[in-house]
Amino acid sequence: MPPVQHVAQDSSTISKGGPAELQGEELRTLLTEAADVFADYVNGATSDSGKAITEASAQQLLTTLDLGLGETGVGHEGIWQDIGSICDSAAHTWNKGFLFKLFASPTPIGVIGESLTALLNNNSHVYESSPAGTVLEATVGAKLAAMANFPAETAAGLTFP
């Protein structure tokens, strides 16, 4: 799979503790750039020439990733370089040859769902902290219980990825 390539558009957008009103625009910029990087990664991983597993030693990763982590971080360009290195060395779960006992390939809508979860950063343990998440959890739990023929009046539980 070819390495993920990306050139930063604007080096002034990485969080620096700036005004809160700029966070939405910073998020828009980063998500736009991420969409290109992530779609390129999926296209490479799903191509006929893509591999499910890329061999990389821990030493290679330490050399490739900028782990200096000084007070200023790696900057805008460095983030995309590190993300590209992480993608290049990952198990390519989007590849049609990827099979594993503990997890399966993601789906585009699944990535959107996980992005929403990260965006909201809610914990659905109580209704007040995540009304929609709590209702969804109860509904999914009831549906799973019904599919397993558990009695609705006594079935309860939580789902986890």
UniProtKB/TrEMBL annotation:
Highest rank taxon of the organism: Eukaryota
Keyword line: Lyase
Protein name: Glutamate decarboxylase 2
Catalytic activity, EC: 4.1.1.15
Keyword Lyase part of the UniProt annotation: yes
